[in-house]
Every structure is written in C-alpha cells, then in structure tokens.
Amino acid sequence: MCMLIHMRTRDAAATRQRILEQAQRQFAQRGFAGVTVTGVAAAAGVSPNLITRYFGGKDGLFLAATRVEIPVSISIEGDRSSLGARLAASIVTRWFDLPGEDPLLALLRAAGERPEAAEALAAFYDTNAMEPLHRYLRDTGLDDASARDRAAAIDAFVVGVLTRRRLLRSDLGDRAELEEWLGTTIQRLADG
C-alpha cells in the first residue's frame, strides 16, 4: 500500500510577514493596550506561540510592527519655494495610501500608554523629520536658529494635523483640498 503524505511547506518569512501585517493593522487601529497576542495570531491564522518565537512576545511584536519610515529627505530636495507642495504631497500620499495601517499611528496611539513608545516617537521625529528639515532650511540660506525654529513649527503643525485628522479619526476630507491646504500652510511656515 502506497501512502502519500502531504506536508505543508513552511515559510517562516511569509508567516512572520503575515503576523507583522496583522499587528500593524491592529496596533494602528487600537493602540498597544487594545491588542492581544491571541487576537493578532488569530487574524494571521497562526498559533500565538509563533509570535513568541518570532518576536519574543507582545512588546517585541509592537516594536517590530511600529518601525516607521518616512522619506523626508526625498520630499525636501529641491527649491525652497516649493517645499510646502512637496512635503504636502508626500504626507497626503502616506495618509491616504496607508489608511488605518500606518505604523506611525500605532506609535502615536501607544505614546500615551507606554513611555518607551513616546520616547521612540520623539526620537523618530527628531531623527527623521526635524533634523533633515532643519539642515535643509539652513542649507537654503536661513541662519541656524531660524532654520531650527521653522523646522519645529512645521513639525508641530504636521503632528497636530496628523493627530486631529488621523489619530482622532476625523475624516481626512478631499485629498486635493487637504494637500493644497497643507502645502500652503507648510510653505508659510518655511518662509517665516
């Protein structure tokens, strides 16, 4: 008698990615406290022990799921007179293309719950947004203090709009109108 055994091929990388995608979605929607390992595992179609194996538990999963990349340096390249339009286009694209799954939302939601999330978010903004923007403004002719102040104003404005329009789940509204308003306001802040 010939017995055929069907074995499912295991793909650790695909499983890990599936878990991360579910974790990103859930952390962005519910924050750290609202997510369970069991819930993420169920949504990913895996056993909860795989989350422990791949990520060391909920904290490790959160850290992996909230790795954020924002290509600010790409968005700021060019003439300062069109900085607002470039940044606004990049911001609006991210907001509309990552609805509810943006790891940045997970960090924002968790910042009030977990000091390490707040520190990670502050460090992320400093390194990936504030400093590149500060250098850009300085390199385009502003003195260091003015460049730093304007970068801080742009950062505060964008984080405020992000919080109001995405974190508090307010409607983003019309994409073109939002991009125009953001671009105009960012440009005013950049021009002083």
How many β-strand runs? 0
**Secondary-structure element string:** HHHHHHHHHH
Overall 3D form: elongated
pLDDT under 50 segments (min length 5)? 1-9
Mean pLDDT: 84
Could you tell me how far the N terminus lies from the C terminus, measured between alpha carbons in angstroms?
84 Å
Number of helices: 10
Relative strand content: under 5%
Radius of gyration: 20 Å
Range of helix content = over 70%
What's the main sheet like?
none
Tally of individual domains: 2
Q: Could you say which structural class the secondary elements and strand pairing correspond to?
A: mainly alpha
GO molecular function: DNA-binding transcription factor activity; transcription cis-regulatory region binding
Pfam families: TetR_C_16, TetR_N
DNA-binding region: 36-55
Protein name: TetR family transcriptional regulator
Q: What topology does this entry show?
A:
Elements (H helix, E strand, L loop, with lengths): L11 H19 L6 H8 L3 H8 L2 H8 L6 H5 L6 H15 L5 H9 L3 H25 L4 H24 L7 H17 L1
Helix pairs in contact: 1-2, 1-4, 1-7, 3-4, 6-10, 7-8, 8-9, 9-10
Describe this structure in words.
The protein has 192 residues and is an all-alpha fold. It has two domains: 12-65, Homeodomain-like (Arc Repressor Mutant, subunit A, Orthogonal Bundle); 72-191, no CATH class. 72% of the residues lie in helices and 0% in strands. The chain contains ten helices and no strands. It has helices at residues 12-30, 37-44, 48-55, 58-65, 72-76, 83-97, 103-111, 115-139, 144-167, 175-191. Helix 1 crosses helix 7 (103-111), helix 3 (48-55) crosses helix 4 (58-65) and helix 9 runs antiparallel to helix 10 (175-191). It is elongated.
